[in-house]
Design a protein that fits this description.
The complex is a heterodimer of chains A (782) and B (180). Chain A is α/β, with parallel strands linked by helices. Chain A has 28 helices and 23 strands. In chain B, the strands form 2 sheets. In chain B, strands 1-9-8-7-2-5-6 form a 7-stranded parallel sheet, with helices on both faces. In chain B, strands 3-4 form a two-stranded antiparallel ribbon. The complex binds iron/sulfur cluster (SF4) (3 copies).
Chain lengths: 782, 180
């Protein structure tokens, strides 16, 4: 690889897609390209401005709506600067630029997090298995092994060493982007937005690399629709056995634990359980691993005394886990350089001495950066601690709950600090009178953040009271989650490509991300089930995939038993952990490449244009809280895929909204004729909040419409939209006329109703174009 | 009378809402406005006062004041179910982006709203929207009828109990003819 920046201008060129005119290429890096089967596109390894024009096309359609979380900026010592309502900071910055800068910084943190995670995995695996270790994502079923990386970098990776090269590129981009946040650099909000898009795209590359590496080496399910069903929930754990609890996202230490237990033939005698994405990745490696739940359940399980040792790797780990674990005599092993927890580094000490110190309580925790040593220490400590700890917990008895609740002064500090505004004081009042039902209701929806507790002047352990009240339902949490299957196979793409692009499969609903749900995880289950029953493709990952598996239908089936696990109409697939989200973007990209035969390598703009105009995919991050969720979303934005977030997602502080009543927003070029055609608001937004589950369902159905839908596809999509709107909003939608292009689009069963709406709105017939936003895609300029 | 934000972390405001000390003050401002609108969020079916949901108090107020109502989330159906048809329904961000745009001519096309009143959204979300309007539509007057102090509004009631909220909403309604 060389580091030259290259800029090429081509006035006229003949390609498979037709005549290309006025093409400008900017290439951040030149790669030694030995892969000749597919030609290299115009933008391999784009620099931070290469795709700026594409971003501006999207940002013209979808304008930022900023909602600053803070009136001031305090990023440098010129400040603090008050940026309220038109005031500028000492560096000249205004609040719009500051808001977009914060969006970009958040996405950069997320992207850095995934890339650093992947970097650790790749370095570790190269050290163990060498650069030439071949990658294998799905055997013969997956020829397009790394759609995102190929699209962005142009590299077709074949070995771990190739993944290393790809990461080197992403690391440079992250550095470049983060540099622009410095005082007195980027000034314009739209430029910050473009850079946020860039870092989001980079994030998907970083994620893909990490997941490909671990799938290839650890023998995870490989694009398998029938990946095994994994036990999920606290009741699935045999608590008579020693329990090793792993929290975080990086599977390497967990692999050390599982390998040690297996090699010593004690794997049947212990339980290895996981929280958050580590749980997904452990269970992809070892089907006996248990997923106990999303990040929000860390404290309830530790306080309930479940863990005999806690192993922390990286990302989304509560920073007070060690203190909480100490209260129940649970030793902690920190296993990541990124999360040392203040513990002494014992990596070079003998295993015996570390085990001894943890078991005797001489130290509450240790830092061990050798995953194999973590494996041995964790298993041995758990086995020794289980009989000593005897499930020591800090939950009060039911009688104690009542007595403690009586000390509540009804000051409301808890409720005012609860991010969900739950009526905790009222629940305390009821509990003081012996009725724990209101606390139990909070158990079902509590995200375990402990903000209530830390605000209580009476020092009431409110969360422990909630968990005690919910103990009975906690003891029944015995469900199933399908193990993360990784990529979508080329075969699956071939069979759904046509129906998807024509609109006959009404859409792909990707439900991803964290568990900061406004009203508990059941909403995720309900949304997923609604769309799967309507034969949308439902793809899940991360904590959302766990929440979706945590409920059962009336026949006692979990979602993963009720619906098939394929990328197919009515399929419910779990792609896996956070880094597996790249496979969802990858699937959309593969439709463009495999089904529509659009060239992939280094051809970002054309593929994004295809995805945006033709593939009815919508991302939903109902409980998104993290910076990683921001960068994942940003990666979808640049591909032109709309993302919906739950109400807490408003705290990302800016939406990307289309204005449906402004016709000029919705013009595309008909690639057949070069003429401008108005296609209506499809999709209407690139990033928006849904305030309630009901609204969310309706919004998703609407956002699945695309300019390319055939009349048959559009009529199907419209009938879902109208039906869901009537059911959840209680009325007919008032914007149907914007989505009907010809009378053939109108669902037959709703013809009379809709005709009236069309007449009332002076509706006129229009055509269904071959839609593109890129003038160079026009085959025959008039 | 407390003027702290309801959610304790929502303090990052250099320009804070004026406190509505008495409902009569709010009514006077609403009566003065030429094109007021009332944007109603999803919490109005979650809050109960005296055996009645907040939405019922809002309907009584809307009927008396004749201020056009915009229902957000899935509230349109909840209004219609109770025999009240709101002037419009929008997603919370969609309507807020429009009121932020001075060229938007209102629900009836007759003029940009000069007073935008919010009630009943999740607190943190309404706070952010009000912040967006404070910064990007500095000439627009915003008010909230919630029982929670919203720093970013132009005018807000202070934090109050559900009972006090119900009482305030009743007084607001009573100040319009037919609202007794
Ligand atoms: S970066 Fe600019 S706006 Fe922010 S504190 Fe420094 S001078 Fe003020
Ligand atoms: S722990 Fe639960 S109840 Fe307490 S503040 Fe957090 S979400 Fe609210
Ligand atoms: S903060 Fe503590 S004392 Fe105050 S209402 Fe909540 S539980 Fe009661």
């Amino acid at each position: 690889m060389t580091d030259k920046n290259v800029h090429v201008k081509i006035d006229e060129m003949k390609t498979n897609a037709g005549l290309v005119k006025n093409l400008e290429l900017s290439i951040g890096k030149v790669i030694n390209d030995n892969y000749t089967e597919e030609p290299m596109g115009p933008t391999p390894m784009p620099s931070i401005t290469t795709l700026r024009d594409w971003d501006m096309k999207l940002l013209t359609k979808y304008k930022p709506f900023y909602m600053p979380d803070c009136d001031s900026c305090c990023l440098c010592t010129f400040g603090k600067c008050d940026l309220t309502a038109g005031k500028r900071g000492a560096c000249g910055l205004d609040i719009a630029a500051q808001s977009s800068r914060i969006v970009m910084i958040a996405a950069s943190i997320g992207s850095a997090c995934h890339t650093a995670h992947s970097r650790h995995l790749v370095n570790h695996l190269i050290e163990k298995y060498g650069r030439r270790y071949p990658i294998d994502v799905g055997g013969l079923n997956v020829k397009v092994e790394a759609p995102v990386s190929r699209l962005v970098t142009g590299i077709k990776p074949a070995t771990l060493g190739d993944l290393d090269d790809i990461l080197t590129y992403t690391e440079e981009e992250i550095t470049q982007i983060l540099a622009t946040a410095h005082t007195g650099q980027e000034a314009n909000p739209l430029d910050f937005e473009s850079k946020a898009f860039h870092i989001g795209m980079i994030d998907h590359v970083g994620m893909e690399v990490g997941d490909i590496a671990q799938i290839s080496v650890f023998g995870y399910p490989k694009a398998d629709p029938e990946a095994p069903l994994i036990k999920l929930g606290i009741a699935s754990v045999d608590r008579t056995k020693p329990v090793v609890m792993c929290i975080g996202h990086n599977v390497v230490p967990s692999v050390g634990i599982i390998d040690y237990a297996k090699e010593n033939k004690i794997d049947e005698r212990i339980e290895v359980v996981g929280l958050c994405c580590t749980a997904h990745d452990m269970s992809r490696y070892y089907t006996r691993a248990r997923i106990v739940g999303p990040i929000s359940w860390e404290i309830r399980f530790i306080r309930a005394g479940l863990a005999d040792v806690v192993v922390l790797d990286e990302q989304c780990i509560r920073t007070d886990v060690a203190e909480e674990a100490a209260k129940v005599n649970t030793p902690v092993i920190a296993a990541s350089e990124k999360n040392c927890v203040g513990f002494k580094n014992r990596t070079n000490d003998s295993t015996d001495s570390i085990v001894e110190d943890l078991v005797t309580g001489k130290v509450p925790g240790v830092l061990v950066l050798d995953p194999e040593k973590v494996g041995e220490v964790a298993v041995r400590v758990a086995m020794k601690m289980a009989p000593i700890r005897k499930r020591k917990n800090v939950l009060p008895t039911a009688e104690e709950v009542v007595a403690i609740a009586k000390t509540c002064t009804q000051c409301k500090a808890c409720q005012r600090n609860c991010p969900q505004d739950y009526f905790i004081p009222a629940a305390m009042k009821a509990a003081a009178a012996g009725d724990l039902s209101k606390l139990e209701e909070i158990y079902e929806v509590c995200i375990g953040c402990l903000r209530c507790e830390s605000a209580c002047p009476q020092k009431i352990k409110i969360h422990s009271l909630i968990v005690k009240a919910g103990e009975k339902s906690m003891q029944c949490e015995d469900n199933l989650c399908r193990s993360g299957r990784g990529a979508v196979s080329d075969v699956e793409i071939r069979s759904v490509g046509g129906p998807l692009v024509l609109g006959e499969i009404p859409g792909i609903v990707a439900i991803v991300g964290c568990s900061n749900y406004p009203k508990g995880g059941k909403d995720v289950y309900d949304i997923a089930r609604e769309f799967a029953s309507r034969r949308y493709i439902v793809a899940l990952s991360g904590c959302s995939a766990m929440s979706a598996g945590s409920y059962r239908n009336k026949d006692g089936q979990t979602l993963y038993e009720e619906f098939p696990g394929g990328f197919e109409a009515g399929g419910v697939l779990n792609v896996g952990s956070c880094v597996s989200n790249s496979h969802i973007a990858g699937a959309a990209i593969k439709v463009a490449n495999i089904f529509a035969k659009r060239p992939l390598r280094g051809n970002y703009e054309e593929i994004a244009d295809y995805v945006h105009n033709r593939i009815g995919a919508v991302g939903l991050a109902w409980g998104a809280y993290s910076q990683k969720a921001a960068s994942i979303a940003a990666g979808f934005w640049r591909l032109g895929v709309p993302v919906v977030v739950g109400p807490h997602g408003s705290k990302y502080r800016r939406m990307l909204l289309g204005r449906k009543e402004d016709p000029e927003n919705w013009n595309v070029i008909d690639a057949r004729t070069g003429e401008t055609v108005n296609v209506g608001p499809s999709p209407e937004h690139l990033f928006n909040v849904a305030e309630t589950k009901e609204e969310c369902i309706v919004q998703i159905a609407k956002l699945c419409m695309r300019p390319n839908d055939t009349w048959k596809g559009r009529s199907g999509k419209l009938s879902h939209y109208i039906d869901l709107h009537k059911r959840y909003m209680g009325v007919m939608p008032n914007d149907i006329h914007l989505y009907v292009r010809t009378m053939a689009d109108v669902p037959i069963t709703m013809k009379d109703e809709i005709t009236q709406v069309l007449q009332a709105n002076n509706w006129k017939e229009s055509i269904i174009p071959d839609p593109t936003l890129l003038p160079r895609m026009v085959r025959k300029m008039k | 009378m407390s003027c702290e934000p309801w959610q304790c972390a929502e303090i990052a405001a250099t320009k804070k809402a004026n406190v509505i000390q008495k409902p009569e003050i709010a009514v006077a401002m609403m009566k003065r406005a030429q094109h007021p609108i009332l944007i109603v969020g999803s919490n109005v079916t979650e809050r109960w006062m005296d055996g009645k949901q907040a939405i019922e108090y809002i309907i009584e107020f809307a009927n008396a004041s004749k201020i056009p109502v915009v229902a957000t989330a899935h509230m349109v159906g909840e209004f219609v179910k109770r025999g009240y048809t709101p002037a419009a329904y929008w997603n919370a961000m969609e309507i807020s982006q429009r009121v932020c745009d001075p060229t938007w001519m209102g629900l009836d096309g007759k003029g940009h709203p000069d007073l935008v009143i919010y009630v009943g959204m999740p607190y943190y979300m309404e706070a952010l929207i009000l912040s967006g309007l404070k910064h990007f539509a500095p000439d627009l007057k915003t008010m909230t009828l919630d029982n929670m102090y919203h720093v970013h509004a132009s005018w807000s009631f202070p934090n109050a109990s559900l009972e006090e909220w119900a009482a305030n909403l009743k007084v607001l309604t009573s100040k319009y003819s037919g609202g007794q």
